[in-house]
UniProtKB/TrEMBL annotation:
Keyword Transport appears in the UniProt entry: yes
Name of the protein: TRAP transporter large permease protein
Annotated transmembrane regions: 6-39, 60-79, 99-130, 142-169, 175-198, 228-247, 282-305, 325-345, 357-379, 410-438
Protein's organism: Aquibium oceanicum
Gene Ontology terms: cellular component: plasma membrane
Membrane topology, as annotated: Multi-pass membrane protein
Taxonomic placement: Bacteria, Pseudomonadati, Pseudomonadota, Alphaproteobacteria, Hyphomicrobiales
Amino acid sequence: MSPIEIGIVSVLVMLALIYAGIHVPFVLALTSFVGVWLIKGNFTIATLMLTQAATQGIADYIFGVVPLFVLMGMLVSAADLGRDSYIVANQLLRRYAGGLGIATVAANTVFAAITGVTIASAAVFSRIAVPEMLQFGYNKRFAVGVVAGSSVLGMLIPPSVLLIVYALIAEQSVGAMFLAGIGPGLLLAFLFSLGIFLTAKFFPRYVISDPQKAAAIDTNDNLTGLELVWKIAPVVMLVFAVLGGIYGGVFTPTEAGAVGAALALVAALLKRRLTLRGFWAILIETGYITASILFIVISATMYSRMLGISGLPTQIGDMVRDLDASYVVILLVFIALALILGTIIDSVSIILITVPLFLPLLAPFDVSLVWFGIVAVLATEIGLLTPPFGISCFVVRSTLSDYGVTLGDVFIGAFPFAVVMLLTVALIVMFPSIVLFFV
């Protein structure tokens, strides 16, 4: 077989093995290793590529940003800053139609600005927001759907681990990707809130199953203005320190991760939410998450090199030019592929598998790779809400095992939010300035 044929077969075998349930990093490493071995006809060369990918793939200083932001997110959760954000948003918004749902979106938006992990958002607000909504007569499916849907903001609003991964793969500035995520993140949060408000107005039964309980919201005790400020102050200070430091040029994204982790640790200690045992558990969990992400990056590095050696991306690019396909067609193909892969694998894996294939296809069109990165992240994040994988939905379900919530309830409740995300992708494609305004 020719190198291109080997490249095509390796991609097909890779997808088949992933659908068979084999762990993505092992599949990427194995198919890449065998592909290079067959293309070069030399076992030693394939072994050297494997060694270089493992030793050089994550040796860059910038990769230090991954464990630091993961650690910051874990410490933020331990400090209960997500709960504080929800308390403030809840008091300000709860009396509006669908107010508790809107408060959940608002709190998730704030929480997303201090943690870059969607799973953290889903776990935190499942414990905080869902019991609150159920207590006041909200529909169970709506409650879990709001939490699962709004949790995706954690991967779009900076700082975001997924934006960092894309920046590393596409060789773009992490700071530029963070700036680009602000507009789409706020737009998505606004559309989520607007959708909840309109649904509560015109289809109230979908939102509230017990109106009498919902009416009792007005009898809740209120916090004073000073108490609200005290609740939200640590969150505001952390966001200002991390994002303000990056955008103001005070420090690099990697240094910002260290600053954020240190401030989150101080907040957790001052609030007396962290024990020595708990801190050790957080360090261990940070290591697990970081190792899994970087293992995928190493495997994806091998995959990208194998594709380059095979010449497959160049060949596909030539075919696209011969077909005279527009970049919109290429984007539609990418979005469709991201949605399909989202049913079986996680977001980081989707980015690492698809981006190396599509970047050469977009090169002739002089498309902003920063803009494409936001489109890619949004399209990929939809997979967090779609069956059968839908990791955000699984997290919500597992966190609420005592509330009689089924996985089907979560998927059904999250479906409208997936539709809103598709609408947001369409708006970004039509109006790129939404992404590039702050860049």
